[in-house]
Design goal:
Elements: H1 2-38, H2 44-53, H3 58-64, H4 73-83, H5 87-99, H6 104-110, H7 114-122, H8 131-159, H9 169-185, H10 190-206, H11 212-225, H12 227-232
């Protein structure tokens, strides 16, 4: 048991430096979420609990608006599904890696965010730690940053005067950074090009207030239809 705990301690020590970029990002966007959540009249404890049990990033930002009157349960389900549908592709590419992790795979599936997925796919596991312990450490560290940021934002929003106008743009800015990083690292940029063109097309057809869901549906359809061709020209870092 002592050696088991020592192995995890070393895994967390090795994983932490790789998660520092996520730490800086998650603290700030977590704080932004906590401030928005506190404006609805909720305690910082609820913000932390939501980040602990839901942990959906952009889905949590969207969920803040679900507290408004007139939002139906079906709308909540549909919008949450569409915002997080990209995780289907993440999960498929990591099935083989998670298969040998036993019960830990259930948390790994739950904790699979955009940033964690990027780390799991691109980070080489150090030779002196077990792979499953290292991967779990990455996921747990990333979520801890989000939970801490949410609670800090909730506390700040409850006790300090804040003008939160425009603060929800923090999540958009993070996705722009992720997009740029993926664009710079990948040789096959077809999925990114498909996403941009589909979004621009739907923006012209449906307007700024209604283009997001049609764009996501179109992107999903195009990626499913062209999956084999896209995979043929792209490296598979998660296998």
């Amino acid at each position: 048991m002592k050696g088991y705990r020592k192995g995890y301690r070393k895994a967390f020590q090795r994983a932490f430096p790789y998660t520092i970029p996520v730490l800086t990002g998650y603290l700030f966007i977590g704080i932004a979420f906590g401030v928005m959540f506190s404006e609805k009249g909720y305690s910082f404890l609820w913000a932390g609990l939501m980040s602990l049990l839901v942990y959906a990033g952009s889905g949590q930002y969207l969920a803040v608006n679900f507290f408004a009157p007139g939002v139906s349960f079906l709308q909540v389900i549909f919008l949450t599904l569409m915002v997080n549908i990209r995780h289907i592709f993440y999960g498929i590419s990591l099935l083989e890696k998670f298969h040998g992790m036993g019960k830990k795979r259930w948390y790994m599936i739950f904790g699979l965010t955009d940033e964690t997925y990027s780390l799991l796919c691109t980070t080489k596991v150090p030779e002196d730690v077990e792979e499953d312990q290292f991967l779990l450490a990455v996921s747990l560290l990333d979520q801890s940053y989000w939970v801490i940021g949410s609670m800090i934002g909730g506390i700040a929003g409850n006790f300090l005067p804040f003008d939160s106008e425009g603060i929800d743009f923090a999540m958009t800015a993070l996705f722009v950074v992720i997009f740029v990083e993926q664009w710079m690292e990948k040789k096959n940029r077809a999925p990114e090009v498909i996403g941009v063109l589909a979004a621009c097309f739907c923006l012209q057809i449906f307007g700024a207030d209604g283009f997001v869901l049609p764009a996501m549906l179109l992107i999903t359809l195009l990626l499913f239809v062209g999956r084999k061709r896209l995979e043929g020209g792209e490296e598979e870092p998660c296998r």
